[in-house]
Amino acid sequence: MAKNELKELSPPRKQPAMPEGFRQLKTQVAGHTFEESNAEAVGLLQDPTAGCVLKPMGKPECGERELRFYESLAAAGASGDNDLALLRGHVPRFYGPLKLVVNRRERTFLRLEDLTRGMSQPCVMDVKMGKRTWDPESSPNKRKLEEAKYVMCKQKLGLCLPGFQVYLPKDAEEEEEEKKEHPTILRHGKDYGKSLNVEGFKQTMALFFNASTSDSKTRRVGTELLLKEVLRQLQAILSWFQRQRLLHFYASSLLICYDYSRLANSNTQKSLLNGHHRLEKDDDPANWVRVRMIDFAHVYPADRALPDENYLFGLRSLIEVVQSILHR
Ligand SMILES: Nc1ncnc2c1ncn2[C@@H]1O[C@H](COP(=O)(O)OP(=O)(O)O)[C@@H](O)[C@H]1O
Ligand SMILES: [Mg+2]
């Protein structure tokens, strides 16, 4: 890993002043983060006992737009029969705003379900959706800046990769036991994502799913389960987007999370290798794989009640990339 990449993603050495019971979200792979030299810069917090993360409300317009988005979902029909209510299943659960003093300043945070909760070795990827990542109120300058970022992937795939972390088995020369107990962790930020072309993006996705490192039969079985579960959850999000005419999402992401420790989980393998297709409840991949939409700072009412073709284009190409990894 390049030195600047390490610097980019390492938590600052000087720990920010944090209220009791909270800590920095160590698995944050993208977005606004804490900075050692700037006490004003705040990243996500984690409340491990409650299974929540706390996202700081950033720039006023963005923070308020995101708060309104989550509040409108919470207020949508309880019967679950309208499109807003159905969207709740594809985003983190929302537990309301909360004021906290961080770095001696009071700020408001959005309390959200921690999508990595319960994962002992969380692999996390933030995929930003759409060829167009500037919203309808952007200045010409902001629009230009956005169009110049992640050009290769964004224009061809309608996707870009601001960051990810993945656990990988140690080099093949290592002892089997050693490999199982001490995987290595690889983290990359936006500089890496910006360097990717389409082929590089596809290879990175395969790496993230441990599909290029599946050197043992047990892990191959786990990777297949993982890819099928990711596809199932992506298809469910696609079905929602194909129907809805309410909202357009700019610069929003999909967060893909899974637990590396479950890739080689003995019960999962046994039941599959023995041909038992009914998995124990705890082994159901839905318990260790989560694909959810996040980052709603730039969500707008749908223009002329049209479908969100910009998001749909990226989502379809993401599904194609994952399918091609599964079927190769
Ligand atoms: N609900 C969540 N659970 C776990 N991690 C999250 C959650 N929401 C955000 N994150 C982490 O924080 C990062 C930044 O979140 P995001 O909402 O995109 O913030 P920003 O507006 O700063 O881009 C994500 O890439 C992810 O690593
Ligand atoms: Mg983001």
TrEMBL record:
Residues 1-20 are annotated as: Disordered. The keyword Calcium does not apply. InterPro entries: IPK, IPK_sf. GO terms for cellular component: cytoplasm; nucleus. Pfam families: IPK. PANTHER family: INOSITOL POLYPHOSPHATE KINASE, INOSITOL POLYPHOSPHATE MULTIKINASE. Keywords: ATP-binding, Kinase, Nucleotide-binding, Transferase. The lineage of its organism: Eukaryota, Metazoa, Ecdysozoa, Arthropoda, Hexapoda. GO terms for molecular function: ATP binding; inositol tetrakisphosphate kinase activity; inositol-1,4,5-trisphosphate 3-kinase activity. Residues 1-11 have a biased composition (Basic and acidic residues). GO terms for biological process: inositol phosphate biosynthetic process. This is Kinase. SUPFAM superfamilies: SAICAR synthase-like. It comes from Drosophila gunungcola (fruit fly). Its EC number is 2.7.-.-. It catalyses: 1D-myo-inositol 1,3,4,6-tetrakisphosphate + ATP = 1D-myo-inositol 1,3,4,5,6-pentakisphosphate + ADP + H(+); 1D-myo-inositol 1,4,5-trisphosphate + 2 ATP = 1D-myo-inositol 1,3,4,5,6-pentakisphosphate + 2 ADP + 2 H(+). Belongs to the inositol phosphokinase (IPK) family.
